[in-house]
Specification:
Layout: E1 23-24, E2 32-36, E3 40-43, E4 52-57, E5 62-65, E6 67-71, E7 74-80, E8 83-86, E9 90-93, E10 107-112, E11 117-122, E12 125-131, E13 144-147, E14 150-159, E15 166-178, E16 181-185, E17 201-203, H1 205-214, E18 220-224
Parallel strand pairs: 10-18, 16-17
Antiparallel strand pairs: 1-12, 2-5, 2-9, 3-4, 6-7, 7-8, 10-11, 11-12, 13-18, 14-15, 15-16
């Protein structure tokens, strides 16, 4: 670390995706889109038994999604003529330029826990989207509508509980929205697209920087899980986060 301290690498290489950043938009796209978060073979039709093509989609490669079809109890995405990929391996941005219910604003951050994506809407149009890492059981990121109440360019995050100790120095571009839960850069992450944090919404450092510059204290953050798998009981959302 910059401070000279060390953190556990857990067998991964921090340099695996050092340059990954999301996409900036001048207008809302016509079609949905997403990123592969692992290598995916492209098949010629929906389903596991479909003939493979010679094409592969590589980790964090972006793709348009023109149609969705269910085969073998799994969503399959059409990404080109006779080109299909398994939906479970894609972090998909589902476009919705209408403000969430009860939110009187045309400017908000949308976090989809099921897809592990973040989308930013300004004047009811998409301006930015990326892949995230949200809270992992039992440290879920709480669904709900929140407002950013504090922005800090650099933060120290720690938990002194011996059973779950962590100390993270120089956490960049932090924006708190739900008690200890925040949007922030995570320089220790080697992969996004999976729930793995202690409740915060982790982004690549570059993405967190873009979001920090765009957002103001008071801006709205809409956290939702279309799958319904994330619990909503407030009693489950106490303690620290990172």
């Amino acid at each position: 670390m910059q401070s000279g301290g060390w953190i556990p690498g857990k067998g991964a290489r921090v340099g695996e995706i050092p340059t990954f950043q999301g996409l900036v938009f001048n207008a809302t796209p016509r079609f949905s889109f997403g990123w592969a978060f692992e290598q995916i073979p492209v098949v010629s039709a929906p389903g596991y038994s479909a003939p493979a093509t010679a094409q592969q989609i590589y980790p964090f490669q972006a793709m348009h999604i023109y149609a969705v079809q269910i085969a073998d109890n799994t969503d399959w995405y059409l990404i080109g003529p006779d080109q299909w990929v398994e939906g479970r391996k894609v972090a998909r941005v589902i476009l919705n330029t209408t403000p969430p219910q009860g939110m009187v604003t045309n400017r908000w951050i949308d976090v989809d826990l099921a897809e592990q994506t973040l989308a930013v809407y300004d004047n009811n149009r998409l301006v930015f989207a990326t892949v995230i890492a949200s809270g992992q059981e039992p440290f879920w990121t709480r669904p709900g509508t929140f407002q950013i109440y504090q922005k800090k360019e650099i933060e120290t995050m720690r938990n002194n509980d011996p059973s779950d100790f962590y100390y993270l120095d120089n956490v960049p571009w932090t924006m708190y929205f739900d008690g200890p839960r925040a949007l922030h850069g995570a320089y220790w992450r080697t992969r996004f697209g999976y729930s793995q944090s202690h409740g915060c919404v982790n982004l690549s450092v570059g993405d967190a920087n873009w979001l920090f510059k765009w957002a103001h204290e008071g801006d709205w953050v809409y956290i939702h899980d279309p799958s319904g798998l994330t619990p909503i009981d407030p009693a489950l959302y106490t303690g620290g986060a990172y």
